[in-house]
Amino acid sequence: MISVAGVTVAYGDLVAVDDVSFDVPPGFVLAVSGPSGAGKSSLLWAIAGAVEVLTGKVTVDDLVISDRPAAAAHGVVLIPQGNGLARVLTARENLTIPLLAGGRDPDEVQAAAEAVLEAVGLAESGDHLVEELSGGEQQRVAVARGIAQGGRVILADESTSELDSTNRERVLTLLRTQADRGAAVVIATHDPTVADAADGHAVMDEGRLSWARRLSVDRP
Ligand SMILES: Nc1ncnc2c1ncn2[C@@H]1O[C@H](COP(=O)(O)OP(=O)(O)OP(=O)(O)O)[C@@H](O)[C@H]1O
Asked: What is the C-alpha separation between 124 and 126, in angstroms, rounded?
């Protein structure tokens, strides 16, 4: 369960997230939309422990999120806008290296990487350097890397912005699968199709959050 309680994020005098509160239970997908600069990324970073919270707090299950390493160790996965990939490594290496560094069994890691690359339609591209891939392919590698972590929280920041409709569906299906196995998922998006596919839709504007559609706990 993600609990965001009265969270404010500021950069100097600029309030990017203004007293925002909501919960996302395991099994649910929340979409957050809003104009450029509305504070969507800052909200996701706050949940990920990647930016300091001025007031309020974020908890994920039993952990108060205070910094990125602790949040990551607790299974809070951030798929960042801009992808954050190592461009001179292959697509596969971008997936496997973080998992191997976490002490996972190498055979398991290879199998997991192949499965998730296939799920994003990149089964043939594992050996390609990231810098050789298109923008949309890189975005799918970033999604695959995030999914491969198997987190309890997945924060996807504009993760379908460069995708055609087929690949957008692939990514949405994958994120839904993650929710179905018990993850709490938050997607920042400008795409109404993505917002419609979520269980709830929040809208940010100048740091304030309102609801276009509240999370339905009755989702079948
Ligand atoms: N590191 C930073 N330092 C100072 N200001 C920042 C920083 N990061 C973001 N901001 C500002 O905070 C506000 C919210 O930015 P944020 O990236 O969270 O918005 P967003 O809704 O994700 O935008 P977009 O849809 O363009 O990605 C903007 O005014 C932005 O310029």
From this structure: 6
